[in-house]
Amino acid sequence: MTREEIIAEINAELAEEFEIDESVITPDAPIYQTLELDSLSLVDLIGIVQTRYGVLISKAELPSIKTFAQLYDYIEQHQK
Amino acid sequence: MHDVLIIGSGLGGLECGALLAQRGLRPLVLESSHQPGGCMQSFRRGGLHYDTGLHYVGGLAPGQALHKAFEQLGLLDLPWQRMDKDFDHIIIGGRHFAFHQGYDGFVDGLAKDFPHHHKELKSFVEKLQNINASDMEVCAYDYLRQTFSDDLLLNVVSAAAMKTELRRESLPLFNFAHTCSSYIESSWRLKGDGNLLVSKLISIICKAGGEVKTDSKVVLLTEEDNRITKATCADGSSYEADYFISDIHPAKLCQLLEGCPSVRKSFRRRMASAENTCGMFTAQLCIRPNALHYFAHNVFVYDKPNVWTMTEENDPVKGVMISARIPEDGSDVLRQIDLLTPMPWHECKAWTETKVGHRGEEYKTFCQRKAEQCIALAEQYLPELHDMVEQYYTSTPLTYRDYLGTPEGGAFGMRKDCRMPMLTFHSVSTPVPNLLLTGQSIILPGIEGVTMTAFETCNKITQEKAI
Fold it and tell me: Which of A79, B14, B361, B416 could be B201's S-S partner, Cβ–Cβ 3.0 to 4.6 Å?
């Protein structure tokens, strides 16, 4: 899957699942504020990425993912 | 208006009700079916009571895992009877082993059969006594492979863990250890049926001014200002409360939350798509009078050392648990034996669209064949058992699905996975602050797991109220 395909797919899915307008998802936007994540919904985000791409974001690496661009990077690097 | 409304009257729901009642709150428990108790309920056939989920309990002696919790819940004064010193007997490939109560006895007993592995057994029980949250990330099977150099011994120490889903790739050591440890501390059976436990908890709830209503199926939860305010039942009645606790399967709860703005699709999807554990097949035998004496131990019989693989394909039956029921008349004449074996959901596929009592002849034949296989395996311990059986009743994961509303009839709730602990061990909290979860799917299954989770759920409410 190319980076562009990942971006299009994950943006649409996150907008649908977190019930927000897709247009607010931009590469540099902060994930936590944009998706209104708390400790519970953060687990939902990890679940979506795991189910869709088979990519499990580890607890240790979570803090390094702050923006959507960093999320795309992570998926791109770890997808099977 | 009640202080707390609890959806579901399984052990977790009733324990939450009793705990909160003891803490001065007025709970209302709503149960969809006619009989309360979930897996703790029993049924009566031919003048005898048969239990559905209660077989034995571990750690009830002072200072042990469940003692304090059961003391607080008022459950210690029920007629618990301590089981034999050799509480679990294991037969694998015709060889006989025994688990002794007490960690030292457990090690020394098995070391007689495995004299060169005393150190490994010692290390194993030390681990059992020092389990913590980090063991949710450890694969139980990998741990056992690293600990035991003898494959038969690995199978023997795992053999009584039919009380959980033994899945090589995913079962966390945290779950495996909790399935073993409290029973090694001490093992107990209840003289009488599971309804004793259910009635006791209900009486605590009612004494405090709470209520338990059966035939009350909640179909909708209403949210206002980020709080659940009301539960509406199928008959149109509705109940308000300050707090709500769900003791039903989380996927079922999400169906009640469709219109709640605080619960986004992401949460509902995660709960709905979670995997369930396998179910169990049970053959409940009524034994002819004076054919057998009561025995106060369980027996786990396997045709070969395949304890960790049999749940993947258990047809024909490769392992069975034999659980004897304490004679209620005070004699030592055994009238009832339960035979249990894991049964994956795919074995039920032909009958998923059917309902209790209307599954057809093929299903009856299937259950008879499976029961006969269980009996044949059990005959390794009880020769000629087949001829002693007067009557038997069977249940499959379909029975549990239809009576208890458990998706896929999973016997141990939602599956835990050591590779994804964050996704499979759940918080008792939900996106709505006054809606909490309890029951076997959340953290740990079994009586110990459900009881510990009930305490965590209730502590959350009383702490918040204190603030």
Answer: B14
Question: Could you tell me if B367 and B24 are in contact, meaning their C-beta atoms sit under 8 angstroms apart?
Answer: no
Please tell me if residue A61 touches chain B, with a CB cutoff of 8 Å. no
The DSSP bridge pattern shows strands B27-30 and B211-213 to be: parallel
DSSP H helices, B45-117, are: 67-73, 103-113
Q: Please, what is the Cα angle at B257 between B464 and B438, to 5 degrees?
A: 45
Topology (CATH) of B2-53+194-274+415-466: FAD/NAD(P)-binding domain (3.50.50)
Domain ranges of chain B: 2-53+194-274+415-466, 102-185, 278-409
A50 touches chain B (CB under 8 A): yes
What's the number of domains chain A is made of?
A: 1
Among the listed residues B53, B192, B56, B135, the one whose alpha carbon sits nearest the alpha carbon of residue B443: B135
Contact (CB<8Å) A44/B273: no
Residues of A in contact with B423 (CB under 8 A): 43, 46-47, 50
> Å from B432 to nearest chain A CA?
11
**DSSP H stretches of helix in B102-215:** 103-113, 118-128, 140-147, 151-158, 173-185, 195-207
pLDDT in tens, A41-69: 999 999 999 999 999 998 889 999 999 99
